[in-house]
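If you are new to this repository, start here. Below is one unmodified record pulled from the training split, so you can see the exact layout before writing a loader.
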Amino acid sequence: MSSIKKQLFSGVFYTALSKYSGIVVSLIVTAILARLLSPDDFGVVAIASVVISFFNIFTDIGLSAAIIQHKNLSKQDLSDLFTFTFWCGIILAGGFFILSIPIANYYEHSILSNICKILSVNLFFSSVSIVPNALFYKNKEFRYIAIRSLSIQFAGGIFSVVFALLGGGIYALLINPVLSCILLFIISIKRYPQRLSLFFNISPIRKIFSYSVYQFLFGTIVYFSRNLDKLLIGKYLNMTALGYYEKSYRLMMLPLQNITQVITPVMHPILSDLQDDKRQLTSAHEKIVKILAAIGFPLSVFLFFSAREIILFLFGEQWIPSISVFQILSLSVGMQIVLSSSGSIFQAAGDTKSLFVCGLFSALINTIGILLGVFYFKTLDAIAISINITVLLGFIQSYIYMYVVTLKQSIYPFIKLFVLPLIISLVFVIVFFIINHYTAHINIVISLSIKSLIFVIIWGIYIQYTGIYDVKNRITKLVSHQSK
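And here is the target side for that same chain:
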């Protein structure tokens, strides 16, 4: 267990180094592009990105997780899987290229056709990167992954901004995703070369099918669950409204992704070693949830009360309609941060069937909520409220199912983990409500700085005295180190 703990913390450290450095790059790039391009431009590219995400599901079909989980795949098996992904990539990229015109006609935006054709390159390189990229995680090379990710993000961000400044317009939004996929493939295949054949053996796919099929089905329903709102807003409201919504949604996802994606990519490769010991797996999961809840729930409150300052500071006044949507969506951040760890537990336990069942439930209720928001209430705020409600219901169902069916453990220790995070979140509600009263008319930078400072101080005290992290000892060591 100590070895697993060491590997987990090592993986988290390097992933965090990459992610949090990447936050700075991402925010700078996004802030610049948001001032150079219109909400309509972001809306059009959002539609293309959503559609290509659907095709990307079929490039993976659960292969990445299956390669990590199965320890007995031979070099020949991996070569056969690589050949399979190569031909899948060609077929899917070609199909997406052909469908670019019908997609543009459906949304009545001719430029969508060119955007989809360019993004079809992503499908091919995403597909052929699956096997070598999965081997990085299988072999727990988290330091290399961190360096690779940050380098790619930095390069893509620079080229995007330069292209936008040179007048590239909406096409500047395509530089990063296309360049990132190409660079990822080049680096991955150089590290883990694979042999390409004209034909491939179906036997390795049969080996992992029972595991990967439910992972694939889960990915499919998660796609519809997370993207149906954008598809419908772009069609039945308008592209400008989608631009506002997409900006709010992506901003809400930024802390979510840069917190959970520090931990969750590490969880499955390491916790898969505990797949035969459900008690230890449960214990490891609850330690992770304790940390995620302590971060996520207070962060939700901070984002809600700082929404105006964050939107105006990062994107400017043309994005004011995004403020209320971002406020509403931020309320689900805490739950989503915790819920993001559930998939890795289902995977590590070898129970992707239960992962699919929980994902199906979440997708169904999410679909109902989005349909009500788009067709009945017809407002972005209503859609955001619907998403919050469905996240809550999915959260409850997922963890009850996990503890009863997959882990076969008592759920009460898990429930107790949320008492203190909810109490400190209530404290933050009171504090920020008072602060908002006095900072409503001052400079947004000063207001955001005050709120951020108070949040860090109170949250630091909270994690110190709850034993989550020894802040005092860490500061003492840093001061001692600097004084030498």
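Two things worth knowing about this chain: The two ends are 36 Å apart (CA to CA). The mean pLDDT is 84.
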